[in-house]
Amino acid sequence: MSAGLAERVKALAQEVGFDRAAISDAQPLHEAERRIKASITAGYLDGLHWFTTERAQRATHPTGLMPGARAILVLSASYLARMTPPAPEPGRPRGRIARYAWGADYHDVLRDMARALVERLPAVAGRSVRSRIFVDSSPLAERPVAQRAGLGWFGKNTNILLPGAGSWSFLAAVILDLDLEPDQPLRKTCGACTLCLQACPTQALPAAYVLDGPKCISFLTIELRAAIPRALRPRMGTWVFGCDDCQEVCPVNRKAPTARLAALRPRTVDDAYPELLPLLGLDAEGFRTRYRGTPITRPKLWGFQRNVCVALGNASDPAAVPVLGRVLADNDRHPLVRGHAAWALGRLGGGAARRALTATVSKSLDRTIRAEVTAALAMHQG
Ligand code: SF4
Ligand code: SF4
Asked: Which of 88, 195, 238, 334 is deepest in the core (most CB within 10 A)?
């Protein structure tokens, strides 16, 4: 077990661009497996169809992911950027994008850095090194590994909190066949703080360390491939991709340093606070061009525009009414976008919105759109 080699590997991680590195052994993560399986049983991972009990088992047994695994190098890179929202302007409502998606797709950025690290490992270790890289989308339970390696501690909002840097960091991990001295878990906790639990607008944090995924705005705006439950829409504010509310209130995040990596920073204010009405004018090609290389393509154009409709309903700007009316009437649009446009018209209220809704009633409509129009008209009467 080499402490000197461990330090050299961690130094190499910083040379290739990571902010921090820590080492865990490759033993199974039994407690994490139990917790993930309990979340599945409780329905907290419903909608994430790939998150099965088999996956939970695989994600928590590093030697199954790479036979011969001896250690796991856990890596972090801050994505914190600061961008002041523009002053509100009537007629130009804006939405919000979660900070992690303000810049380039972190999967690509972190994977490139991890590859650069792995290429240089043989020179540091003095032998060939077997490795497997994980950047979020691969099946390794990175947060429990980060906790065991002492990189941070579990916050009550289920994020890993790094001392002095908080939760505004991406994590990556590299399983290695090297014997490296592991780091020790931290003794820190959130103490009596419960700010994140109180701040969550959809009550997706029903208890400390428990995330009710199907209620989380991140899930609703990114992963959900269906209609957003009507009861949750008014609570989503103007988030169109992800949500940062439980991180913004976190006191550990207050003094976090900004990202070193320029690729993770936004280029313009629209990367963080996009004007909403032009987003409904994007076609598939325009969407690809605008968001290529960022995480925002994940929900696809129709999922993103569904979110935009909800944000417009919550933004209370009457300038949205004619645009939403045209979306609702457009037979070429995805039925879920049209349905959520109807909801937004119901939420905005007023004579013009009601006329846009009633104009569609006599037309032949998809069953889901008709149900949304009926519910939206009922909101006008309510
Ligand atoms: Fe709640 Fe938003 Fe945090 Fe999800 S990301 S738990 S919706 S505050
Ligand atoms: Fe922990 Fe408080 Fe931060 Fe929540 S807001 S993660 S309870 S320190």
From this structure: 238
List strand residue ranges (DSSP E) for 222-378, in order. 239-241
Can you tell me the mean pLDDT for 312-329? 97
| CA atoms within a 13 Å half-sphere pointing along the CA-CB vector of 157 | 29
Ligand 1 center to 316 CA (angstroms): 22
Take atom 3 of ligand 1 and give the residue whose Cα is closest.
Answer: 246
> Kindly report the CA angle at 125 between 121 and 130, in degrees rounded to 5?
60
**Structural contact between residues 288 and 297, judged by C-beta atoms closer than 8 angstroms:** yes
Average pLDDT of the segment spanning 139-159: 97
Residue with tokens 């979306």: 327
Strands 160-161, 20-25: parallel, antiparallel or unpaired by DSSP?
unpaired
Distance 204 CA to ligand 1 centre (A): 6
Question: How distant, in Å, are the alpha carbons of 53, 195, 245, 246, 344 from that of 201?
Answer: 29, 12, 8, 9, 18
Atom of ligand 1 nearest to the CA of 199: 8
- On whether the CB atoms of residues 344 and 310 are closer than 8 A, the answer is yes
Whether 3 shows a pLDDT value over 70: the answer reads no
Whether pTM exceeds 0.90: yes
Give, using CA atoms, the residue closest to atom 2 of ligand 1. 243
The enclosing H or E element of 104 equals: none
Q: CB of 199 closer than 6 A to ligand 2?
A: no
Asked if the model's pLDDT at residue 366 lies above 80, the reply is: yes
Amino acid identity of residue 204, one-letter, is A
216: Cβ below 6 Å to ligand 1? yes
Ligand 2: centre distance to CA 283 (Å): 40
Rounded Cα distance, 89 and 279, in Å = 17
For 233, 277, 306, the CA distances from 311, given in Å and listed in that order, are 8, 10, 9
Residue that is written with structure tokens 């099946």 in the block: 139
Query: Could you say which of 46, 136, 270, 366 is catalytic?
Result: 136
Q: Is the CB of 69 under 6 A from ligand 1?
A: no
Residue 265 has pLDDT above 90, yes or no: no
- 170 Cα to the center of ligand 2, angstroms: 18
Q: Judge contact between 90 and 275, C-beta under 8 A.
A: no
- Amino acid sitting at position 25: D
Torsion of CA 262, 264, 267, 272, to 10 degrees: -150
Residue 317 annotated as catalytic: no
Amino acid at 350: G
